Amino acid sequence: MTMTNNRIVSGMRPTGRLHLGHYFGVLVNWVRIQENNECYFFVADWHAMTSEYSDPRRIQGFVPELVKDWVAAGLDPEKCVIFHQSQVKEHAELHLILSMLTPLGWLERNPTYKELRQELIQKELNTYGFLGYPVLMASDILMYKPSLVPVGQDQLPHLELAREIARRFNFLNGEHFPEPQAMLTEDAKLPGLDGRKMSKSYNNGIFLGEPMEEVLPKIMSMLTDKNRLRKADPGDPEICNLYPYHKLLTDSDKCAEIEEGCRNASWGCVNCKKLLAESMARFLEPMQERRRKMDENPDLVWQILAEGTAKARAKAAQNMEEIREKIGFKF
Ligand code: TRP
Q: Whole-angstrom Cα distance, residue 132 to residue 129?
Protein backbone atom coordinates (compact mmCIF):
# COMPACT_ATOMS: atom_id res chain seq x y z
CA MET A 1 0.00 0.00 0.00
CA THR A 2 1.47 3.38 -0.86
CA MET A 3 0.76 6.22 1.45
CA THR A 4 0.40 9.66 -0.05
CA ASN A 5 -0.20 13.29 0.83
CA ASN A 6 0.36 13.08 4.55
CA ARG A 7 2.36 15.59 6.49
CA ILE A 8 4.86 13.61 8.56
CA VAL A 9 7.28 14.64 11.32
CA SER A 10 9.95 12.63 13.06
CA GLY A 11 13.27 13.19 14.77
CA MET A 12 16.33 11.40 16.09
CA ARG A 13 18.73 12.40 18.83
CA PRO A 14 22.33 12.92 17.68
CA THR A 15 24.16 10.49 19.96
CA GLY A 16 26.41 8.47 17.65
CA ARG A 17 26.80 6.63 14.37
CA LEU A 18 23.86 4.75 12.90
CA HIS A 19 24.00 1.03 12.11
CA LEU A 20 21.98 -1.39 10.01
CA GLY A 21 19.57 -1.91 12.92
CA HIS A 22 18.59 1.76 12.62
CA TYR A 23 18.38 1.38 8.87
CA PHE A 24 16.00 -1.59 8.82
CA GLY A 25 14.13 -0.38 11.91
CA VAL A 26 13.53 3.26 11.03
CA LEU A 27 15.31 4.68 8.02
CA VAL A 28 13.87 2.38 5.33
CA ASN A 29 10.49 3.77 6.31
CA TRP A 30 11.65 7.34 6.18
CA VAL A 31 13.21 6.75 2.75
CA ARG A 32 10.00 5.16 1.50
CA ILE A 33 7.58 7.81 2.81
CA GLN A 34 9.64 10.76 1.58
CA GLU A 35 8.40 9.89 -1.93
CA ASN A 36 4.76 10.97 -1.83
CA ASN A 37 4.38 12.81 1.45
CA GLU A 38 5.45 16.10 2.98
CA CYS A 39 8.15 14.97 5.41
CA TYR A 40 10.03 16.86 8.11
CA PHE A 41 12.95 14.96 9.62
CA PHE A 42 15.03 16.70 12.24
CA VAL A 43 18.10 16.32 14.39
CA ALA A 44 16.78 16.55 17.96
CA ASP A 45 19.82 18.18 19.56
CA TRP A 46 17.80 19.84 22.33
CA HIS A 47 16.42 16.42 23.23
CA ALA A 48 19.93 15.00 23.37
CA MET A 49 20.76 17.79 25.80
CA THR A 50 18.18 16.58 28.34
CA SER A 51 20.56 13.74 29.24
CA GLU A 52 23.90 15.04 27.89
CA TYR A 53 23.70 18.54 29.35
CA SER A 54 27.09 18.24 31.06
CA ASP A 55 28.85 18.23 27.67
CA PRO A 56 26.61 19.95 25.12
CA ARG A 57 29.48 20.56 22.66
CA ARG A 58 29.80 16.86 22.17
CA ILE A 59 26.22 16.72 20.87
CA GLN A 60 26.95 19.25 18.14
CA GLY A 61 29.79 17.03 16.89
CA PHE A 62 27.22 14.31 16.20
CA VAL A 63 24.83 16.60 14.31
CA PRO A 64 26.56 16.61 10.88
CA GLU A 65 27.38 12.90 11.26
CA LEU A 66 23.71 12.06 11.75
CA VAL A 67 22.73 14.02 8.65
CA LYS A 68 25.44 12.25 6.64
CA ASP A 69 24.07 8.90 7.79
CA TRP A 70 20.57 9.93 6.73
CA VAL A 71 21.70 11.02 3.29
CA ALA A 72 23.84 7.89 2.94
CA ALA A 73 20.76 5.83 3.78
CA GLY A 74 18.82 7.51 0.97
CA LEU A 75 17.05 10.52 2.43
CA ASP A 76 17.00 13.08 -0.33
CA PRO A 77 16.98 16.76 0.66
CA GLU A 78 15.08 17.46 -2.58
CA LYS A 79 12.25 15.25 -1.37
CA CYS A 80 12.07 15.89 2.37
CA VAL A 81 12.95 18.66 4.79
CA ILE A 82 16.01 17.84 6.92
CA PHE A 83 16.48 20.32 9.75
CA HIS A 84 18.29 21.20 12.96
CA GLN A 85 15.88 21.47 15.88
CA SER A 86 17.78 24.01 17.98
CA GLN A 87 18.01 26.36 14.99
CA VAL A 88 14.23 26.71 14.77
CA LYS A 89 13.69 28.76 17.92
CA GLU A 90 9.92 28.54 17.54
CA HIS A 91 10.16 25.05 19.06
CA ALA A 92 11.38 26.63 22.29
CA GLU A 93 8.56 29.17 22.31
CA LEU A 94 5.90 26.55 21.75
CA HIS A 95 7.52 24.33 24.36
CA LEU A 96 7.21 27.16 26.85
CA ILE A 97 3.57 27.83 26.04
CA LEU A 98 2.63 24.15 26.16
CA SER A 99 4.50 23.68 29.43
CA MET A 100 2.12 26.19 31.03
CA LEU A 101 -0.91 24.04 30.36
CA THR A 102 0.61 20.59 30.93
CA PRO A 103 -0.30 19.20 34.37
CA LEU A 104 2.70 17.84 36.26
CA GLY A 105 0.80 14.62 36.93
CA TRP A 106 0.75 13.77 33.20
CA LEU A 107 4.54 13.96 33.08
CA GLU A 108 5.15 12.15 36.34
CA ARG A 109 2.81 9.37 35.26
CA ASN A 110 4.66 8.87 31.98
CA PRO A 111 5.86 5.21 31.99
CA THR A 112 9.25 6.04 30.52
CA TYR A 113 9.82 8.61 33.23
CA LYS A 114 8.57 6.32 35.98
CA GLU A 115 10.83 3.50 34.81
CA LEU A 116 13.82 5.79 34.84
CA ARG A 117 13.06 7.30 38.21
CA GLN A 118 15.77 5.45 40.19
CA GLU A 119 18.34 5.80 37.44
CA LEU A 120 17.50 9.48 37.16
CA ILE A 121 18.81 10.24 40.60
CA GLN A 122 22.04 8.31 40.06
CA LYS A 123 22.65 9.85 36.67
CA GLU A 124 21.67 13.30 37.86
CA LEU A 125 18.79 13.40 35.42
CA ASN A 126 16.42 14.59 38.05
CA THR A 127 16.00 17.86 36.19
CA TYR A 128 13.18 20.10 35.07
CA GLY A 129 14.25 19.66 31.44
CA PHE A 130 14.22 15.88 31.56
CA LEU A 131 10.74 15.78 33.09
CA GLY A 132 9.63 18.10 30.28
CA TYR A 133 11.11 15.91 27.51
CA PRO A 134 7.63 14.94 26.21
CA VAL A 135 6.47 18.58 26.21
CA LEU A 136 9.39 19.51 23.97
CA MET A 137 8.55 16.53 21.80
CA ALA A 138 4.91 17.67 21.65
CA SER A 139 6.03 21.07 20.40
CA ASP A 140 8.30 19.50 17.73
CA ILE A 141 5.33 17.57 16.48
CA LEU A 142 2.44 20.02 16.85
CA MET A 143 4.47 22.81 15.25
CA TYR A 144 3.99 21.18 11.85
CA LYS A 145 0.43 19.87 12.40
CA PRO A 146 1.28 16.46 10.96
CA SER A 147 -1.19 13.64 10.53
CA LEU A 148 1.45 10.96 11.17
CA VAL A 149 4.50 10.54 13.36
CA PRO A 150 6.71 7.50 12.68
CA VAL A 151 8.06 6.27 16.03
CA GLY A 152 9.12 3.08 17.75
CA GLN A 153 7.03 1.35 20.41
CA ASP A 154 9.02 3.00 23.21
CA GLN A 155 7.87 6.45 22.08
CA LEU A 156 4.13 5.73 22.15
CA PRO A 157 3.55 7.18 25.64
CA HIS A 158 5.22 10.39 24.47
CA LEU A 159 3.02 10.56 21.43
CA GLU A 160 -0.07 9.98 23.53
CA LEU A 161 1.00 12.92 25.71
CA ALA A 162 1.40 15.09 22.62
CA ARG A 163 -2.19 14.24 21.70
CA GLU A 164 -3.43 15.05 25.20
CA ILE A 165 -1.56 18.34 25.18
CA ALA A 166 -3.07 19.19 21.77
CA ARG A 167 -6.54 18.42 23.10
CA ARG A 168 -6.00 20.56 26.17
CA PHE A 169 -4.71 23.48 24.12
CA ASN A 170 -7.72 23.20 21.81
CA PHE A 171 -10.12 23.01 24.76
CA LEU A 172 -8.66 26.11 26.39
CA ASN A 173 -8.05 28.24 23.31
CA GLY A 174 -10.27 26.90 20.55
CA GLU A 175 -9.58 24.26 17.89
CA HIS A 176 -6.10 24.62 16.46
CA PHE A 177 -3.99 21.44 16.56
CA PRO A 178 -5.11 18.25 14.81
CA GLU A 179 -4.26 15.15 16.85
CA PRO A 180 -1.33 13.32 15.26
CA GLN A 181 -1.41 9.54 14.86
CA ALA A 182 1.52 7.23 15.51
CA MET A 183 2.92 5.35 12.56
CA LEU A 184 4.47 2.43 14.36
CA THR A 185 7.91 1.31 13.27
CA GLU A 186 8.14 -2.47 13.12
CA ASP A 187 10.37 -4.32 15.55
CA ALA A 188 13.97 -4.72 14.48
CA LYS A 189 14.27 -7.44 11.86
CA LEU A 190 18.00 -7.66 12.19
CA PRO A 191 19.87 -9.07 15.18
CA GLY A 192 23.39 -7.93 16.00
CA LEU A 193 26.41 -9.89 14.79
CA ASP A 194 26.34 -11.92 18.03
CA GLY A 195 22.59 -12.54 18.02
CA ARG A 196 21.73 -9.94 20.64
CA LYS A 197 19.93 -6.71 19.73
CA MET A 198 22.12 -4.60 17.45
CA SER A 199 23.33 -1.83 19.70
CA LYS A 200 26.14 0.65 19.99
CA SER A 201 26.87 -0.45 23.54
CA TYR A 202 27.29 -4.12 22.55
CA ASN A 203 29.60 -3.20 19.67
CA ASN A 204 27.85 -5.80 17.49
CA GLY A 205 26.75 -3.75 14.52
CA ILE A 206 27.61 -2.83 10.97
CA PHE A 207 27.58 0.91 10.42
CA LEU A 208 25.92 2.65 7.51
CA GLY A 209 28.46 3.18 4.78
CA GLU A 210 31.15 1.23 6.65
CA PRO A 211 33.93 0.17 4.24
CA MET A 212 33.88 -3.49 3.15
CA GLU A 213 37.41 -4.10 4.51
CA GLU A 214 35.96 -3.52 7.97
CA VAL A 215 32.69 -5.33 7.35
CA LEU A 216 34.23 -8.52 5.96
CA PRO A 217 35.96 -9.73 9.15
CA LYS A 218 32.75 -8.97 11.05
CA ILE A 219 30.75 -11.20 8.71
CA MET A 220 33.33 -13.99 8.79
CA SER A 221 33.19 -14.07 12.60
CA MET A 222 29.39 -14.16 12.86
CA LEU A 223 27.76 -16.97 14.81
CA THR A 224 25.74 -19.49 12.80
CA ASP A 225 23.66 -22.45 14.03
CA LYS A 226 25.71 -23.48 17.07
CA ASN A 227 24.49 -27.08 16.87
CA ARG A 228 26.02 -27.47 13.44
CA LEU A 229 29.60 -28.46 14.22
CA ARG A 230 30.62 -29.91 10.85
CA LYS A 231 29.53 -29.10 7.33
CA ALA A 232 28.09 -32.64 7.11
CA ASP A 233 25.63 -31.87 9.96
CA PRO A 234 22.27 -30.55 8.84
CA GLY A 235 21.66 -26.97 10.02
CA ASP A 236 18.64 -24.90 10.98
CA PRO A 237 18.41 -21.43 9.40
CA GLU A 238 15.83 -20.40 11.99
CA ILE A 239 18.46 -20.36 14.72
CA CYS A 240 21.29 -19.06 12.54
CA ASN A 241 22.37 -15.45 12.88
CA LEU A 242 23.28 -15.10 9.26
CA TYR A 243 19.92 -16.07 7.86
CA PRO A 244 17.98 -12.90 8.85
CA TYR A 245 20.67 -10.94 7.03
CA HIS A 246 20.24 -13.05 3.90
CA LYS A 247 16.48 -12.56 4.07
CA LEU A 248 16.95 -8.81 3.91
CA LEU A 249 19.91 -8.62 1.55
CA THR A 250 19.96 -11.67 -0.72
CA ASP A 251 17.30 -12.27 -3.39
CA SER A 252 14.51 -14.65 -2.42
CA ASP A 253 15.29 -17.48 -4.89
CA LYS A 254 18.81 -17.64 -3.60
CA CYS A 255 17.52 -17.57 -0.01
CA ALA A 256 15.31 -20.59 -0.68
CA GLU A 257 18.33 -22.40 -2.09
CA ILE A 258 20.44 -21.56 0.96
CA GLU A 259 17.73 -22.70 3.33
CA GLU A 260 17.39 -26.03 1.53
CA GLY A 261 21.18 -26.50 1.36
CA CYS A 262 21.62 -25.71 5.04
CA ARG A 263 18.92 -28.16 6.10
CA ASN A 264 20.30 -30.99 3.95
CA ALA A 265 23.95 -30.22 4.76
CA SER A 266 24.99 -29.60 1.16
CA TRP A 267 25.84 -25.95 1.77
CA GLY A 268 28.34 -24.83 4.41
CA CYS A 269 28.52 -21.83 6.70
CA VAL A 270 31.68 -20.43 5.13
CA ASN A 271 30.00 -20.41 1.69
CA CYS A 272 27.05 -18.74 3.31
CA LYS A 273 29.23 -16.00 4.79
CA LYS A 274 30.98 -15.38 1.48
CA LEU A 275 27.65 -15.03 -0.22
CA LEU A 276 26.47 -12.64 2.49
CA ALA A 277 29.60 -10.57 1.98
CA GLU A 278 28.65 -10.22 -1.70
CA SER A 279 25.08 -9.22 -0.89
CA MET A 280 26.31 -6.81 1.77
CA ALA A 281 28.79 -5.18 -0.61
CA ARG A 282 26.00 -4.66 -3.16
CA PHE A 283 23.74 -3.17 -0.49
CA LEU A 284 26.34 -0.90 1.14
CA GLU A 285 27.90 0.34 -2.08
CA PRO A 286 25.43 3.17 -2.86
CA MET A 287 25.54 4.22 0.81
CA GLN A 288 29.33 4.34 0.80
CA GLU A 289 29.22 6.34 -2.40
CA ARG A 290 26.82 8.92 -0.95
CA ARG A 291 28.81 9.11 2.28
CA ARG A 292 32.06 9.61 0.32
CA LYS A 293 30.52 12.58 -1.50
CA MET A 294 29.55 14.13 1.81
CA ASP A 295 32.98 13.51 3.35
CA GLU A 296 34.76 15.00 0.34
CA ASN A 297 32.78 18.20 0.60
CA PRO A 298 32.29 19.14 4.27
CA ASP A 299 30.18 22.19 3.35
CA LEU A 300 27.55 20.00 1.76
CA VAL A 301 26.07 18.68 4.97
CA TRP A 302 25.82 22.19 6.44
CA GLN A 303 24.23 23.41 3.25
CA ILE A 304 21.61 20.65 3.41
CA LEU A 305 20.88 21.50 7.04
CA ALA A 306 20.74 25.24 6.39
CA GLU A 307 18.30 24.85 3.50
CA GLY A 308 16.08 22.41 5.37
CA THR A 309 16.16 24.53 8.51
CA ALA A 310 15.07 27.60 6.53
CA LYS A 311 12.08 25.67 5.15
CA ALA A 312 11.11 24.34 8.59
CA ARG A 313 11.51 27.80 10.10
CA ALA A 314 9.15 29.33 7.56
CA LYS A 315 6.49 26.75 8.37
CA ALA A 316 7.06 27.08 12.12
CA ALA A 317 6.98 30.89 12.02
CA GLN A 318 3.63 30.84 10.30
CA ASN A 319 2.11 28.45 12.80
CA MET A 320 3.59 30.38 15.74
CA GLU A 321 1.89 33.54 14.45
CA GLU A 322 -1.42 31.70 14.47
CA ILE A 323 -0.76 30.28 17.93
CA ARG A 324 0.10 33.69 19.37
CA GLU A 325 -3.06 35.08 17.85
CA LYS A 326 -5.09 32.20 19.27
CA ILE A 327 -3.89 32.93 22.83
CA GLY A 328 -4.09 36.71 22.44
CA PHE A 329 -0.33 37.24 22.55
CA LYS A 330 0.06 38.77 19.10
CA PHE A 331 0.85 42.46 18.91
N1 TRP B 1 12.22 11.05 21.43
C2 TRP B 1 12.59 10.60 20.11
C3 TRP B 1 13.60 9.43 20.27
O4 TRP B 1 14.30 9.36 21.24
C5 TRP B 1 13.22 11.70 19.29
C6 TRP B 1 12.25 12.80 19.04
C7 TRP B 1 12.28 14.06 19.54
C8 TRP B 1 11.09 12.72 18.21
N9 TRP B 1 11.23 14.79 19.08
C10 TRP B 1 10.48 13.99 18.28
C11 TRP B 1 10.51 11.71 17.44
C12 TRP B 1 9.28 14.27 17.59
C13 TRP B 1 9.32 11.97 16.77
C14 TRP B 1 8.73 13.25 16.84
O15 TRP B 1 13.66 8.61 19.38
A: 5
